[in-house]
From TrEMBL:
SMART domains: PlsC. Keywords: Acyltransferase, Transferase. One of its GO terms (molecular function) is acyltransferase activity. It comes from Parabacteroides chinchillae. This is Acyltransferase.
Length: 275
């Protein structure tokens, strides 16, 4: 068996069949199109090339692979000790998570957990730092246990409260509504929240497709299929990452509902660049 064959590879047909049994009826030419769109060949090349890297080390290799330059603003706001929830906007849907995991993970000696769509667990190099969230159904008992375990640990938690990546709304690239769960978790586990603003955007094609889909009343986020392609478009780019000061968990009292506190933190995040 060759090294390439012994390393777990991405197989879009297999993923579709496991996550959606009805996918067996999808014509071959559609599967082939999806294979090209998600850059399956390039992704498998990455998995083969860096097969011996895991977690934060793997993320740092990806920074080099995509030839990214990261400019960190107010990085001194990152405490050297403590347990935190890092709440960030989600402009890219891929590389932003890679960059934040690399930067925050390196700062805290690899001790991070990253809340992600459970589909991303197919990337075996990242299972050690990923905590699966099922965005398309109820959380299973095992997922709930892993989430609980992550918050009770001394690992830093990285989360994108919007869940989905940013969309163009009223001419501006902004996150959708931030979910309240990170506020509730901050209070429950006594973790201060560190706001993070990641400066970036996807292609106009991505936003047009999202708006067309929405205009036709289609709930399925078909534009998400193109996120890997958006990621490969970002090669050689420079990104600015802004870190705010920690917000004490005691801030999130009963004067506002958790959902209102979530939007309040979102406002702080988007103001980081303006300072």
């Amino acid at each position: 068996m060759t090294q390439a064959n012994s390393i777990k590879q991405i197989d879009i047909r297999q993923v579709l069949q496991e996550k959606a049994p009805a996918a067996k009826k999808i014509p071959g030419f559609v599967v082939n199109y999806l294979t090209r769109t998600i850059h399956q060949e390039e992704l498998n090349d990455i998995l083969t090339r860096y097969h011996d890297k895991d977690g934060v080390d793997f993320m740092n290799e990806l920074i080099g692979y995509f030839d990214l330059t990261l400019n960190l603003v107010d990085v001194e706001n990152l405490p050297s000790e403590g347990r935190y929830i890092f709440a960030s906007n989600h402009p890219l849907g891929g590389l932003d998570g890679i960059c934040l995991s690399a930067v925050i993970g390196t700062h805290y000696n690899g001790k991070i957990r990253y809340l992600v769509n459970d589909l991303l667990l197919y990337l075996s190099n990242l299972k050690s730092i990923f905590v699966p969230i099922n965005k398309h159904g109820a959380q299973g008992k095992e997922n709930a246990r892993l989430i609980e375990e992550a918050y009770t640990s001394d690992n830093q938690i990285i989360t994108f409260p919007a869940g989905l990546c940013s969309r163009k709304q009223n001419g501006h690239i902004t996150d959708l509504e931030w979910k309240k769960s990170f506020i509730q978790k901050a209070v429950e586990y006594k973790r201060n929240v560190i706001p993070v603003y990641f400066e970036g955007k996807n292609s106009n094609f991505f936003y047009r497709l999202a708006n067309i889909r929405k205009a036709f009343g289609i709930k399925m986020n078909y534009e998400m299929i193109y996120l890997p392609d958006e990621m490969f478009r970002c090669k050689h780019k420079t990104f600015h990452i802004y870190f705010g000061k920690p917000i004490p968990w005691q801030t999130f009292d009963n004067s506002k509902k958790p959902a209102e506190w979530a939007e309040w933190v979102k406002g702080i995040v988007y103001n980081l660049k303006k300072k």
